[in-house]
Specification:
Layout (H helix, E strand, L loop, with lengths): L2 H32 L3 E2 L5 H21 L13 H25 L8 E2 L17 H16 L3 H28 L6 H10 L1
Antiparallel strand pairs: 1-2
Helix pairs in contact: 1-2, 2-4, 2-5, 3-4, 4-5
């Protein structure tokens, strides 16, 4: 079976998701800038957020230029490997959706500093410090595994880890300064007392 068909469906779905994320980020960014947030690292974050669509594109280009099957039959990619790739993509997407829902209007594709922002410790942030970064690494790695592009998988992991470490070097000290998030019960008590 020709892998181009599978890649095309996956690429269209990913493109729609990236477009929705970009639109939400622009809306949230306008709100946060109006509220006084400032951009911390304008040079690195666009590269980071442009990288996952590039992984889809590179996989597609390799697929199209290698005759629709990466130079081997579809059956040569073991079903267990394909399942692992699909599983990583699914977990990455679900984790990212959970992260977006948890952050709400505070989520953007930019590294912002907004002193009034509480430090979030609910949702995926209960178990992972940076679920957004983990979700994108899982998704793009899953795409590479699904199509059997293991050299691209290695390059993906290296590039993303370098970009994430650069972002975290600047982002982490600011995150540590954020005030703890008010719990729901104390927030409702404060509302009742006012």
């Amino acid at each position: 079976m020709d892998l181009r068909y599978h890649w095309t469906i996956l690429a269209i779905a990913a493109l729609l998701m990236f477009a929705a994320e970009y639109r939400r980020s622009k809306t949230n960014l306008r709100f946060l800038r109006f509220a006084g947030a400032t951009t911390k690292i304008p040079a690195i974050t666009p590269c980071y957020y442009a990288f996952p669509p590039m992984i889809y594109l590179i996989n597609g280009l390799l697929l199209w230029f290698e005759g629709g099957n990466f130079g081997r039959s579809y059956q040569a990619i073991m079903p267990q490997t394909q399942f692992l790739g699909l599983f990583a993509i699914l977990i990455g997407i679900l984790l990212r959706l959970w992260t977006l829902k948890t952050l709400g209007p505070a989520w953007t594709m930019s590294c912002l500093w907004w002193p009034q922002m509480p430090r979030i410790r609910r949702g995926p942030y209960r178990v992972c410090k940076h679920p957004e970064y983990l979700s994108r690494l899982l998704e793009t790695s899953g795409v590479c595994v699904l199509f059997g592009q293991f050299p691209l998988l290695l390059a993906n992991i290296i590039v993303q880890l370098v970009l994430i470490s650069l972002i975290l070097r600047i982002e982490t000290p600011d995150i540590e300064q954020l005030r703890p998030e008010a719990s729901q019960s104390s927030a409702s008590q404060n509302t009742l007392q006012a």
